[in-house]
Input
Amino acid sequence: MTKEVSITIEGIQLGSEEAPIRMIASGVYHMHKDKHYIQYDEQSEDGQGSIKNMIKIGLTRIEMTKKGAGSSEMTFDLNQTTEVIYCTPYGTLVFEAKTSQITVEEKEEEIVVRLEYSLYTNEAPISDNRTTIRILPL
Output
């Protein structure tokens, strides 16, 4: 896989009638100690700043970090419940994530990650979610 890549992230809340959320960006890919690392920048929703993103992909754990105008830390782990932190202009939201599936398909010119998880707050279920991350060379 080349260093310069296109990243597509598509997320859907299962059982919801809302359309999937899709984000496409260009970034940089590298592999280190059996983990895939993807870095990319995106504009904040208000267009006033940029957000630096890092995705670390392992076979049983995915970490997604956003820093800048909108910050968040999301860790999805097949072996344990994890904390998901979203920083918003109105305050910080903290959820628990229970990951039920992580699938990493590695091809010569493409990596596809499928992630399924449920979000909880105070042990009460909020939503079931599916996210697909696709990495292709530019």
The domain at 4-137 is CATH 2.40.128.20 (Lipocalin). The chain has one domain: 4-137. The mean pLDDT is 91. The two ends are 10 Å apart (CA to CA).
